[in-house]
Amino acid sequence: MDPTTPEGQAAPPPVLISERQIAERVEHLGREISADYAGVDELLLVGVLRGAFIFLADLARRLTLPTSIDFMALSHYEHGSTPSGAVRLVMDLRVPITGRHVLLVEDIVDSGETLAYLKRTLEARRPASLKICTLTRKPDRLTADVRVDYVGFDIPDAWVVGYGLDFDNKFRSLPYIGVLEPAPDGG
Ligand code: IMP
Ligand code: MG
Questions:
Q1: Which end is more exposed in the chain, N or C (fewer Cβ atoms within 10 Å of the end residue's Cβ)?
Q2: What is the pTM of this model?
């Protein structure tokens, strides 16, 4: 059996969003964000580990303004693949953000609870501005009241993997975004 696929899943996850579609969208987002922040001294990109690492790496290289980069890591209290909504900060930023322009870069917005938590946490530190960019969003699952400024793709309610996204910490290095079939429990 292919060691990259879980038991019962013989084939790689079917493609939902291809490498090429991702590249085109990231390039477009890069142009849009660069234009929106034109004239800003520096933009601090805050990546949320681990899922956003590939998206952040590609997006950062498409921005034409001065940037710096930092990361946060969170842990979800999960039941199987279903996050309970409770989030814990396991690694904080290394730099203060007061008075700085911050763009939070996320891999996926599902219920939106994670984002709501991150927004509260970062806003309390009084950045000059705080905007949110997510690679994917599941509009049908959104319950939290959070506005997202930049969305790569709105996707159906399925468990997606690849391009940083995981199931059980696997599949992150797939170059495309695929759908895990059958859907994991409760996902
Ligand atoms: P939230 O429900 O918006 O708080 O999302 C919680 C977390 O669940 C996300 O940050 C991801 O880590 C994870 N997640 C939700 N849906 C998916 C998916 O389809 N694939 C991979 N991870 C997901
Ligand atoms: Mg995440």
A1: N
A2: 0.91
